[in-house]
Automatic annotation (TrEMBL):
Shown chain mapped onto the complete sequence: 438 to 692 of 823
Name of the protein: PAS domain S-box-containing protein/diguanylate cyclase (GGDEF)-like protein
Species of provenance: Paludibacterium purpuratum
Residue span, EAL domain: 1-255
């Protein structure tokens, strides 16, 4: 496929692949308490190629490790840059695909990204989906334990859409649950979605996890999530994913 060749070239180029950042806000104070790094590909001829296209492509053609290294490297360096410019430090979350979570070298890769950037481990957060954890549960668990010992944060992304295996939830050393945006989207009109969100919050808190709602777009959604006891919101209502520069301005603005 032609796009595969282009992705190879993009990895070697220096400016085609970059990260946007979406802030996560404390649901009560509105303070920024975290950021999610989201990979973008701006191709000189094709324009913006969406991650829903190039991430699966990278997974299937063996480029996901290189792409993941790039995301980790960029995110760690950016986090150090923000901290050095005096902004209050917050964890920066990087998405890792199932393929990456199954690879035995992942903990070393992450240790390297931290060492090379000088970022303290507590400011790096790694996201995994439930299906990623099912891909190769033993390898994933071993990696997660090593990362926990290093002091890196971990979150379960798109929670509720995979095969919610509650025994994994108990055994995996994670810090955060992210309620999938499919439950948030119609939370004001579908009672089932409200109940599911309430249950995820309650369960998360019983397991001492903080709970993030994704895809929050309206004040109505925010109100119900706050009533449910949800801790953190992420979504267009607070901010879209923005450039590193714009994100720094949001943080400096005391948001
Ligand atoms: O904002 P959005 O269109 O960026 O993201 C679409 C999907 O791509 C999401 O599922 C997100 O988790 C995934 N994604 C974005 N950036 C990365 C990345 O750096 N690595 C991996 N594995 N997935 C990513
Ligand atoms: O799969 P993951 O949760 O990593 O991907 C997050 C995706 O959700 C990204 O594509 C991001 O751009 C998108 N996103 C973030 N906030 C909102 C929102 O409020 N509404 C919608 N529809 N998408 C959002
Ligand atoms: Mn995510
Ligand atoms: Na998600």
């Amino acid at each position: 496929l032609e796009l595969e060749g282009e992705l190879h070239l993009a990895l070697a180029a220096n400016d085609q692949l970059y990260l946007d950042y979406q802030p996560q806000a404390d649901i009560r104070s509105g303070r920024i308490v975290g950021l999610e790094a989201l990979m973008r590909w701006r191709h000189p001829r094709l324009g913006l190629v969406g991650p829903m296209r190039f991430i699966p492509l990278a997974e299937s053609c063996g480029l996901i490790a290189a792409l993941g290294d790039k995301a980790l490297d960029l995110a760690c360096r950016q986090a150090v840059h923000w901290q050095n410019s005096g902004l209050p430090p917050v964890p920066v979350a990087v998405n890792l695909s199932a393929v990456q979570w199954s690879q035995p070298g992942l903990a070393d890769t992450i240790r390297q990204a931290l060492t090379q950037s000088g970022l303290a481990p507590q400011w790096l957060e790694l996201e995994l989906t439930e299906s990623a954890s099912m891909h190769n549960p033993m390898a994933t668990l071993a990696t997660m334990k090593a990362l926990r010992e290093m002091g890196v944060m971990m979150s379960i992304d798109d929670f509720g859409t995979g095969f919610c295996n509650l025994s994994y939830l108990k055994r995996f050393p994670v810090d955060k649950l992210k309620i999938d945006q499919s439950f948030v989207r119609e939370i004001t009109s579908l009672p089932d979605d409200l109940v599911i969100s309430q249950l995820v919050v309650a369960m998360g808190h019983l397991l001492h996890l903080s709970v993030v709602a994704e895809g929050v777009e309206t004040e109505g959604q925010l109100t119900l999530l706050a009533e449910a006891g949800c801790d953190i919101i992420q979504g267009y209502y607070f901010s879209r994913p923005v450039s590193a520069e714009a994100c720094g301005e949001l943080m400096a603005g005391g948001k």
